[in-house]
Write a structure and sequence with these properties.
This protein is an alpha+beta fold and 910 residues long. The chain has 4 domains: 211 residues, Metalloenzyme, LuxS/M16 peptidase-like (Cytochrome Bc1 Complex, Chain A, domain 1, 2-Layer Sandwich), CATH 3.30.830.10; 174 residues, Metalloenzyme, LuxS/M16 peptidase-like (Cytochrome Bc1 Complex, Chain A, domain 1); 218 residues, 2-Layer Sandwich (Cytochrome Bc1 Complex, Chain A, domain 1), CATH 3.30.830; 188 residues, Cytochrome Bc1 Complex, Chain A, domain 1 (2-Layer Sandwich). 43% of the residues lie in helices and 17% in strands. The chain has 34 helices and 21 strands. Strands 1-2-3-7-4-6-5 form a 7-stranded mixed β-sheet, sandwiched between helices. A 6-stranded mixed β-sheet has the order 11-12-16-13-15-14, sandwiched between helices. Helix 22 runs antiparallel to helix 24. The longest helix has 19 residues. The two termini are 50 Å apart.
Amino acid sequence: MTSLRLATALTVVASFVFGQSLPQGVKKNVSLEGITEYQLDNGMKVLLFPDPSKPTVTVNITYLVGSKHENYGETGMAHLLEHLVFKGTQKRGNLIKELQEHGARFNGTTWLDRTNYYETLNASDENLEWALEMEADRMVNSKIAKSDLDSEMTVVRNEFEAGENSPMRVLLERALSSAFDWHNYGKSTIGARSDIENVPIDRLQGFYRKYYQPDNALLVVAGKFDESKTLGWIVKNFAPIPRPSRKLDKIWTSEPVQDGERSVTVRRVGDVQYVMSVYHIPAGTHPDFPAVETMSTILGDNPSGRLYKALVDNKKAASILNMDFQLSEPGVAIYGARVRTEQSLDEARQILLRTIEDLAKEPPSKEEVDRAKTKLLKQIELNLNDAGRVGVELSEWASMADWRMLFVHRDRLGKVTPEDVQRVAKNYLKESNRTLGAFIPTKTPDRAEISAPPPIDQVLKDYKGGVEIAQGEAFDPSPSNIDSRTKTTTLANGMKLVLLSKKTRGNTVHGRLALRFGDVNSLKGKSHVSRLTSSMLMRGTKKSTRQQIQDTLDKLKARVQMGGGPSSGIVNAQIETVRGNLPAVLRLVAEVLREPSFPDNEFEPVRQAQLAGIENQKSEPMFLAMNGLNKHLTRYPKGDPREVLTAEEDVEELKKVTLAEARQFHADFYGASNASLAVAGDFDEAEIQKLAAELFGDWKSPKPYQRVIRDFQTADAVNQSIQTNDKANAMFAVGMPLKINDDHPDYPALLMANYMFGGSANSRLFNRLRQKEGWSYGAASQFMAPTQEDAGVFMAYAILAPQNINKLESGYKEEVERMLKEGFPAEEVTRAKSSWMQGRVVNRSSDQFLVGPLGSNFQFSRTMSWDAELEKKVQALTPEQIHAAAKKYLDPAKVSYFKAGDFKKAGVTP
């Protein structure tokens, strides 16, 4: 920044501070439902969305450039650029390192119409001012250096190869490329391998200078912040960036009307079949889109959808999928099914197409439309209750045309009728508009005309929006405050209630109900029946069908997820809803847990879906390497709930389970004597305490409970390689057992050693294997120390191209050797402590996260003060103590290596 620009910035900030309603060069455009839009003279738009109820703030900047803007030979350029702007600017180095040091949860994403970068931080003036200054700096000052391109290109290629391992992703890419003749929506965002590998640095720099400019950007600040200060910082950092003189070209390529069904076939190594059909649909701002989205939900919802009933219920497919690409220009609706190899792909294809295209002949009922709308509107409303979610989601709506389309779409969705759905089904679900078939001469072609959406200013004229969502309180997420606000009660049967009541945005509330059952002996040989039993809970009760359960949750604006791990003897119900609906949601959860009906027609679809999920991984390098390592480190006899199975063993055991066994397992094990219910958010404590006693207080566990404990086991060091034919990506995994738990005096030091070595996005392992060398898209390490047992473990992993396996393994060993020999300098330790601590504060600010430790602490006679004590111990650590812990526990001679990939094709011997 020149001295003249700096002086200008300070002048406008000073004028704001000393009394003007807005800084000079800023105009207020519009306010809608708590969000206010401003615009700077350089063309940049700014959205401020204050929400004091959480001690976090999200900064999200969206550039209106995506893969659709790429020219010939430039595919993947927008995504590659997304990676490079993390490499640093003229005045700062590795931005991932800086973000990690500020305790941020962050990411950058690229899509067809846009690229965005966001970070969620602990709410403080220092963090927010830093984030705004950093984003302004990298907007125009990113280095985009050749050296960074050389290393990051291989990382992106590794990400590309990881996608090539996914049959569904590959099929989707081929289907889209067939569906679009000319428009870039038909090209994958990650790009062609040849373009990724060969793009010239000057082309990439030109692309950056053209699109990364203030007049092509939308900045969103959402969460807890001071609006006046924030607007002042925005002006200070962004206003001095001049509006560029270049003019952005308008995209004039328009996809012609499809004139016949098309098909594409992919033949690759795999274990599961897929069938998919793609239909052209209007742009996301088109008045038809809400009806299209409702139509897709009617077809693809689980379990009410017509495709689910026709394919999964009838055992013709293991699962279904549906996606709508809601974009700035006409996109696509995608429907498909995952089909096991023992099922008929031809039959599934016929049923899929008939069910989709018969919707125009068999119009949806009012019940189907109302159910779909309720589900879709629930998702929007719950998302609007979280400023951080909205702050990131606005990227999609802004890239369509205008962020206010989120609210326009919501209102339009509420007005959709069965007649609207039938009309769009007739318009778009046509044989000539899908990706199957060949050219067929016809005298009377029946084609889907995709009309243009109305001008956005016409759509938004006089639009006022709805009622603003209620604000929450400013809550301090410190362990001491959480403990002081938390009330714990024990019911007559032994169940624990942990209640943390507070005001939240939109009156949201989260809960976690955990049932604990059995012991290592009573659960022997019952891992698979336990898994299937928990999966059947939401499939129906003695009072409600599966569909009625889902409809009730949608009407109550609730999300409920249930699941459990057979090795842990626990089933969790995760709950999200709003204050007024929590009692009804808890009643439904109690009904599901206590009175499941185990309907005959649901059991086989559940089993088939699980079998397909297992079989989908049988030849995947990531699964094979990690499974091999876990099986080597964790050795228990056959039938033990802690046993690690191969995919083949898993399939064999799953096939043996009967519905009668699942029913009996529920009768023998389910009860609330050892359960916990943790609730955090906006609710009436007395009401929920009374209701919990009514619903669960008399429900006793049939069998004794004792937590399944994993014993410390030594494991001989091995180095194994697994050949996986025709897989473009490989997996590297290492690990060793550690005799330690989280109460051990060495735990804090070892925790921080791992955090700096490979446990964060600014770790040595990540910086070496991805940032410097470009060998891996993802590389990390994990240190896990359980509570009240000593079976700890250290693991590290990386995904990579098979030809890089030996270089990556050497690089990993060099980093381990450097850590054990040199330790960690004081400056690195100080930064890591700050980053680690801020990340914990961000986690505790999320009620969805908080109900987990609140509900499990009682098991170990803990409160959040344990967390506070751990944080004190970490802050007191010296570099010497951390180094000593690493040398004491991490012995390279005891580490086992498992590698999986197509090494033969790559011409390497691992």
